[in-house]
Amino acid sequence: MTAGGSGVASLRGVSLRYGETRAVDDVSLEIPANRMVGLIGPDGVGKSSLLRVLAGLQEPAAGSVRVLGEPLRGPHPGVAVAFQDPSLLPWLNLEKNVAFGLDFARQPHLDAATRQARVDQAIAAVGLEHAHARYPAQLSGGMAQRTALARCLARQPKVLLLDEPFGALDEVTRADMQQLLLRAIHERGTAVVLITHDIDEALLLSERILLLGDSPARTLGEWRIDLPQPRAELVEELGALRIEILKTLRRASRTHAHPIAQPEASHVPGRPDPFPT
After folding, report:
1. Which of 75, 102, 133, 266 has the fewest CB within 10 Å, making it most exposed?
2. What pLDDT does 224 receive?
3. The pLDDT value given to residue 267
4. 228-233 — which CB contacts under 8 Å span 24+ positions?
5. Helix, strand, or coil here: 16?
6. Do the beta carbons of residue 29 and residue 35 sit within 8 Å?
7. How far apart are CA 92 and CA 22, in angstroms?
8. Which one-letter DSSP state was computed for residue 136?
9. How large is the average pLDDT for residues 132-154?
């Protein structure tokens, strides 16, 4: 994705190596406020590694990472991460699991009233006001994922990084979580990166989609989607884009690791942007 300098967070020319193996080559990404960027691509192309770089958990071999205009030098209090596994602490109830994120390293100190207000607001945002006292063993899969999302939201992050957060959920619960996520982002103005293997999920949720592939991984295509939410009924517009993404993947597969023509960033026009900057 072309670096324009206006993002809340950004990768510029990032490359990753594991020993002598070059895993990711020259990937750039801008993440604007109040927008979701979807990262898609085959297993093993480095999507999760790029997320760790953005989270300050892994240093790139080359390139730069910035958050809120400053170079990233480790985990940042303005960046929160959620994974497919909710990773709730079984000995803490739901409320205390949500509050636990406020104790992470480099988080600002909060007085008791502010801390409780943040926890209550985050739990309300994911619709779990009735379950404050429940323990993880008493939660369904969807409720556990909501709790993990609330733990992130309580920190009021500027950047939210999501690594296949809904991959283990049934279709109905997944659809509910997707809409909940969109609502939470819109209300808070958060910049989001979503890793997903599901092209349809990326199309439904993202304003921009970045396709990674080849070996070492690089950007194969980029698409901008200016369609309003909810998008579930926009079958024709999204269907055409889905076909274009699949064609790009197949072209890359046919050429294996040989370079393919880099497509211009595609723009799906349509209706007024529902999340204007």
Report:
1. 133
2. 92
3. 53
4. 228/270, 228/271, 228/272, 228/274, 229/182, 229/274, 230/179, 230/182, 230/204, 231/203, 231/204, 232/204
5. strand
6. no
7. 41
8. G
9. 93
DSSP string, 66-120: EETTEE--S--TTEEEEESS----TTS-HHHHHHHGGGSTTPPP--HHHHHHHHH
What number of residues does the chain have? Answer: 277
User: What is the rounded (10 degree) CA torsion for 220, 226, 231, 234?
Assistant: -90
Contact call for residues 150 and 177 (beta carbons, < 8 A) = no
167 alpha-carbon distance from chain centroid = 13
| Three-class SS state of 1 | coil
Task: Say if residues 28 and 12 touch (Cβ distance below 8 Å).
Answer: yes
Token digits for 166?
């809904």
In the beta sheet, which residues pair with residue 10? 30, 66
